[in-house]
Amino acid sequence: MERDCLIAHGAAANLHERLFTLSDSSQMHICGKCKNMANVIHRSVQGGKVRVLYCRFCESVKERVKVDVYMVQSYYARSSSAWAYLLSLTLRFASV
């Protein structure tokens, strides 16, 4: 039974590494308030050189989350926002 668990865990880790980590992993900022994927941009603060993350949809600068996604998913979110499709993502945080 323990051997089967170790084999299953190794297979899952290998699949994650081959299909996500080594293939096309990317990071994307998501608004924690409106859960929107594509509208988070960098914006300069008034009179300063500091750039903050800003959501154009809910006009908020708070609650930004950086998540690991597939490059195809981030590309799809950005290209579909050009056609006025709004993509949102449900965020679940696992305690470590």
Automatic annotation (TrEMBL):
InterPro entries: DNA-dir_RNA_pol_su2, RNA_pol_Rpb2_7. One of its GO terms (biological process) is DNA-templated transcription. It is an enzyme of class 2 (transferase). SUPFAM superfamilies: beta and beta-prime subunits of DNA dependent RNA-polymerase. GO terms for cellular component: DNA-directed RNA polymerase complex. Signal peptide: none annotated. Its EC number is 2.7.7.6. The keyword ATP-binding does not apply. The keyword Nucleotidyltransferase applies. Keywords: DNA-directed RNA polymerase, Nucleotidyltransferase, Transcription, Transferase. One of its GO terms (molecular function) is ribonucleoside binding. Residues 1-68 form the RNA polymerase Rpb2 domain. It comes from the Eukaryota. Pfam families: RNA_pol_Rpb2_7. Belongs to the RNA polymerase beta chain family. PANTHER family: DNA-DIRECTED RNA POLYMERASE I SUBUNIT 2 (PTHR20856). This is DNA-directed RNA polymerase. It comes from Nicotiana attenuata (Coyote tobacco).
